[in-house]
Amino acid sequence: MNGPFLGGFQPAGASEPKGGWRWVSGEAWSYENWAWDGMSGDNDLRNNTQPNDATGNQNVLAFGEVNKPVPTWGDFPHRFGTHGEGREGRAQGFIIEYDKAPR
Q1: Burial of 89 (0-12, 13-18, 19+ CB in 10 A)
Q2: Nearest alpha carbon to residue 76 among 97, 88, 62, 95
Q3: Whole-number Å distance between alpha carbons of 39 and 34
Q4: Which InterPro entries match (predicted)?
């Protein structure tokens, strides 16, 4: 995994792979920037157009995708241990959104 989680999620029971994506903030889902197969910098020969629900439980949104340049998005499992072919997966940072300006 290349980047941090972005606050997007897919609730249980949503149609796969593109159905029902939401923001944890409750804001309208009105913009998408999914990675697509064959984009510049794509070194992966597999079809990895996102979202693809590749492991059957990919329901959170993060920057990047294996062998895809950031700032595109990919869908990822909501918990990590191993990711992909025995590779360890982990979030590489955090995004924090505040409701109000600091006082």
Answers
A1: middle
A2: 62
A3: 11
A4: C-type_lectin-like/link_sf
pLDDT at 2 over 90: no
Q: How far apart are CA 77 and CA 85, in angstroms?
A: 14
Which domains does the chain show, CATH number per domain? 1-103 (3.10.100)
Q: Are 77 and 55 in contact (CB under 8 A)?
A: yes
> Which token pair is 16?
């796969």
**Which residues contact residue 88 at a Cβ distance below 8 angstroms, ignoring those fewer than 6 apart?**
80, 81, 82
Residue with tokens 């796969």: 16
